[in-house]
């Protein structure tokens, strides 16, 4: 299900190759009556519903609260009343940690969000853990870090800066790198999907929180250089970080993902250069469907 609200990135073309294998419900996660109906008789719920723009959360905090906190509580209440045997895997975010005290960041790191989005995502995460612990609604939380790959929003930078970089490269236009020295890790979408499936199937994951990481850690400038290499050409410009973004930027971040590696034998398989190459190839063929 997806609301297909234009600015949130939902795109039916992402299902083009499996249209005959899925049923799509177009509805809003804030519609508690629709959710109560849809969760009935389901075995698993992969809960990736969310408002993901950090800047939007600061400009419109009420909408962020409605989607990332209140609606999450409604989802869990629907499961408690209509399908208490369902298993939920919830997509959380590394944004909860705020500016790291140490690197790499493990799950014991204090949670200290720097924007409204992080606060509301933390509330949504804790609702899932509470319902697991109190009501037995099996739930696992995955804290994602810069998930990228085919299907991501490339129309603009509302959800990921990497998407607009890819679009501009394909259109033979230069892209901007803000700051450039920040350290980051990136998880290719196929590796993230593997983690969701493992978390759904493993009972020992119930009530647990797991970081996802990537194959390597790079600066944003190194990422830009890799992207140009994968594209076999292109230009970028390093600029100072905009003031409105710097206030909510977390600085350097990369994950310690040893817990999920140990508990579920998960590890990222797609290195950054390969993942960027796959992404560029996908959007060269399909860009028109994402503009």
Give an account of the 3D structure.
- Helix content is 40%, strand content 13%.
- With 291 residues, the chain is of the alpha/beta class.
- The strands form four sheets. It has a four-stranded parallel β-sheet with strand order 1-2-3-8, with helices on both faces.
- It is globular, with a radius of gyration of 19 Å.
Whole-number count of domains: 1
Total beta strand runs: 10
CATH architecture: 3-Layer(aba) Sandwich
Number of helices: 10
How large, in whole angstroms, is the Cα Rg? 19 Å
| Unreliable spans | none
Short description:
The protein has a four-stranded parallel β-sheet with strand order 1-2-3-8, with helices on both faces. It has a two-stranded parallel sheet with strand order 4-7. The chain has a two-stranded parallel sheet with strand order 5-10. It has 291 residues and is α/β, with parallel strands linked by helices. The chain has helices spanning 32-38, 54-59, 61-82, 116-135, 161-170, 189-201, 220-231, 243-246, 258-264, 272-286, and strands at 44-47, 87-93, 139-144, 147-148, 175-178, 183-185, 187-188, 209-211, 217-219, 236-239.
């Amino acid at each position: 299900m997806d609301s297909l609200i234009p600015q949130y990135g939902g795109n039916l073309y992402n299902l083009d190759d499996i249209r005959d294998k899925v049923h799509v419900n177009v509805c809003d996660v804030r519609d508690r009556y629709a959710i109560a109906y849809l969760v009935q008789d389901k075995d698993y719920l992969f809960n990736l519903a969310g408002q993901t723009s950090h800047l939007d959360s600061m400009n419109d905090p009420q909408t962020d609260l409605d989607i990332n906190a209140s609606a999450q509580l409604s989802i869990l209440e629907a499961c408690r009343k209509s399908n208490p045997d369902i298993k939920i895997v919830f997509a959380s975010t590394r944004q909860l940690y705020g500016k790291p005290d140490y690197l790499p960041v493990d799950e014991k790191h204090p949670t200290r969000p720097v924007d409204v989005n992080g606060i509301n995502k933390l509330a949504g995460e804790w609702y899932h853990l509470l319902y697991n612990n109190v009501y037995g609604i099996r739930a696992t939380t995955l804290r994602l870090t810069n998930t990228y790959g085919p299907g991501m929003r490339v129309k603009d930078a509302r959800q990921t800066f990497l998407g607009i970089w890819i679009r501009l490269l394909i259109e033979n236009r230069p892209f901007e790198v803000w700051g450039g020295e920040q350290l980051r890790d990136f998880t290719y979408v196929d590796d993230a999907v593997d983690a969701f499936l493992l978390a759904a199937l493993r009972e020992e994951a119930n009530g647990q929180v797991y970081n996802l990481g990537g194959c390597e850690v790079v600066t944003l400038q190194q990422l830009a250089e890799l992207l140009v290499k994968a594209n076999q050409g292109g230009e970028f410009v390093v600029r100072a970080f905009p003031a409105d973004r710097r206030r909510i930027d977390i600085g350097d971040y990369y994950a310690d993902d040893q817990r999920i590696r140990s508990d579920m034998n998960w590890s990222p398989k797609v290195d950054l250069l390969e993942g960027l190459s796959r992404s560029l190839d996908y959007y060269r063929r399909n860009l028109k469907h994402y503009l």
